[in-house]
Amino acid sequence: MPNDLSAKKLFFGKVTGVEKKDDAFWKKLYKQSEERISSLEKEVPFYQEEPVKVLEEDGYTRRDFMKWVSATTAMLMLPGFFEPLVARTIQVLNRVPVIWINLQDCAGNSEALLRADGPTVDELILDIITLEFHELLMTASGEHAERQLEDAMTTFKGEYLLFVEGSIPTAANGIYGTIGTSGETYVDHLKRLAADAKAVVAVGTCATFGGVPAAAPNPTGATGVMSLVQNKPVVNIPACPANPANMLGVILLYAMTGELPELDGLLRPKFAFGQRIHDACERRVHFDAGEYVEEWGDAAAQAGHCLYKMGCKGPMTFNNCPTVKYNRGTSWPVAAGHGCIGCSEPGFFDKFDRFEAPTPYNPSYNPASDFQIAAGLGLATAASALANSTPTQEEDHGN
């Protein structure tokens, strides 16, 4: 199977929902993945260390590794018999070059990545994935860092995945964000690096939809990657911060299949953003029973009742927070007693401006069909550009 991302088919095609994929689909995907992994296994790794050996040296047993493989396979919505392929994919991640740039951001997504759980970022990212450039993690600075970036772009031209963290200021000819000794604007910096990338992965709500910097009145003209990058496949991984599991999931799927995951209408991976938070929330049973927290600290709050009346935006937010969680999978905001603020949705800071006021519940809500938001983000332009290299994405969310 060709691994060209400009092919006329994405890895999950036009099929929606795991339950609609028949045996023939999974057998074909399994064979495709086997061929892709076998091809990568023949290539010389950029770093010679064996991934599993690296894990063992850091205290991870084979049993620990297989538990992680099993959990990751399930998170990616793959059948259980794909587990051996996921395990093999880990062994070839050192053949996939990644360049990571930070633009108008707080580095929160990088911080989240540094705290990724089993395997940790030191083991899985730095020692296994070829992370060629990352301003926050690298030791080089100034002109030395610029040379390292240029070397990486030249060496892996047309093959690297470009991860972008942070929004891009466009007002006043981009003067609100410049980088390097030449004072290159973030706009030009992004476009130059994206031109030679295999695909662009926008990480965090700032990079995907503009985030907080794009909130009204948006003085810097902040916007997301997909409104600026044309003729390149774009994957959006929103949230503030994005979950490291979702970042690694995209890399794993690409390494295993050579293609991008199935995306929704906002270019988000369906394995992570195909379900409302509301539908997987542990407090959903209280919502259905009409049991709500009416005031912070009341008896209902102490009993773990639904936070909808306190402004929880779970019913209109798509993400896998309730199932993947954060901090070694121990918790997430709603479980900790704070309502969801909808941070993985476009325009959340303005659209959900009163976090403690309930938003009318609409079971059929689909942010990708919200014309006002789509127009503001320039989705029509982005979709037109992507159509030149990838097929049209479905605009549903598993409703």
Characterise the protein shown here.
The protein is an alpha/beta fold and 399 residues long. The chain has 2 domains: 18-274 and 374-386, Rossmann fold; 275-359, Cytochrome-c3 Hydrogenase, Chain A, domain 2. It is built from 18 helices and 9 strands. The strands form 3 sheets. The chain has a 5-stranded parallel sheet. A two-stranded antiparallel sheet has the order 4-8. Strand 5 and strand 6 (184-185) form a beta hairpin. The longest helix has 20 residues, at 23-42. The protein is globular, with a radius of gyration of 21 Å. Mean pLDDT is 81; it is low at 1-19 and 370-399.
Largest sheet: 5 strands, parallel
The CATH topology of the largest domain comes to Rossmann fold
Query: Which range does the strand content fall in?
Result: 5-15%
The poorly predicted ranges are 1-19, 370-399
Radius of gyration: 21 Å
Name of the level-1 CATH class of the largest domain: Alpha Beta
The sequence of SSEs as H and E is HHHHEHHEHEEEEHEHEEHHHHHHHHH
How many β strands by DSSP? Answer: 9
